Amino acid sequence: SAAAPSPAGSLAPQAEIPNDLEAFWMPFTPNRSFKKNPRMITRAKDMFYFTPEGRAVMDGTAGLWCTNAGHNREPIVAAIQAQAAELDYAPAFQFGHPKAFSVASRIAALAPGDLDHVFFANSGSEAVDTALKIAIAYNNVRGQGTRTRLIGRERGYHGVGFGGISVGGIVSNRKQFGTLLAGVDHLPHTYNRQEQAFTKGEPDWGAHLADELERIVTLHDASTVAAVIVEPMAGSTGVLPPPKGYLQRLRAICDRHGILLIFDEVISGFGRLGFGFAAERYGVVPDMICFAKGVTSGTVPMGGVVVRKPIYDAFMRGPEHVIELFHGYTYSAHPLACAASLAALDVYRDEDLFGHVLRMEPVWAEAIHALRDLPNVLDIRTVGLVAAIDLASRPDAVGARAYEAMDRCFREHDLMVRITGDTIALTPPLIISETQIGDIADKLKRLLTTLH
Ligand code: PMP
To answer: Is the CB of 210 under 6 A from ligand 1?
Structure first.
């Protein structure tokens, strides 16, 4: 095959695989089928994972859309090691360590407009629940305590906390968990295959769907609505870039009614779409931005929320010795995460990785869209360094074709992809080269040609 020369080189087989895989209840995984025939990973470097046998597998997904700088990058590894040896842990309640303040400043500097204060959590899910709580508490402190309703969107993914699944729009993530949060509405999603098939970048059709917000606000009255939360680009439900003008229209309606606009940039932040945040790509300034994943290039768990100055300021008006926001996590601004983040942000800047994404975007779009005439391909969407390939579902077995595609990509084509329903999603590390983009497209072509 035309596969890249294996960079495994001296990486000999190592880690021992346990005989008993039973105790680990794996997240978002069909446990029984995985444990019968596991897909194991033991090492990683740059664009590649390595299996226990030492096989190099191209990482087509940056882990879970998070290892933006590539794997096991020396400066990030060194920063984590040095931090662990110097200050392993420090509380962020009532005490501080210097890197927490530095990394907050660095993240605030990447954010648009007057988004200039950062609240730290440890994951995307915690970032989302933090933002929703801040939205309601902010309305309280500014004397608008009747504003408690939250508005999400169909096909939105905002993590797995009760707040996140309530504003989220994925049936399977909601239906097992009872009544969820009260007072939540959903905008329609923005995907329409007839109007948008095989779009590169942002589709022309769909900006008018933002006007549904006006209808929801009219139904409940603006005085009851706290916030709208959307992913600027919906990622986990199959990569849905925003229709041109859609986010501007949401912003305008929120402004008209005093409603906060929250962007969940857990995937779209830190370069995935060629900018620090997608808000910059789209020229829309939200009131809060949720982030996670790429903030540490996936190396140490970290998430958080960047908020506009007026939101922070509104909390700072009470007596100085009283806690302003009764919220936080034991591991908020964990020293290892802060050190990892500072190092990852340095790599992004020093290697101009966000600029690299913009330079690669047309190459990437061309390579992936070239697969459009292969069997079972219904649609392809690309934006930044993201792509989705919708496959026709097998009759009576929704998801089975994509599941087989994911499994065979890994075992036969040395490529890691992600799937959602019958959609293949690709989000490689931002360090990917033109040649490696070609390799991914070749692997997918060989797979799709033989997938029945
Ligand atoms: N929001 C979005 C947009 C996400 O894509 C994700 C994770 N894929 C989350 C929130 C949740 O992040 P985590 O898994 O770190 O809780």
So the answer is: no
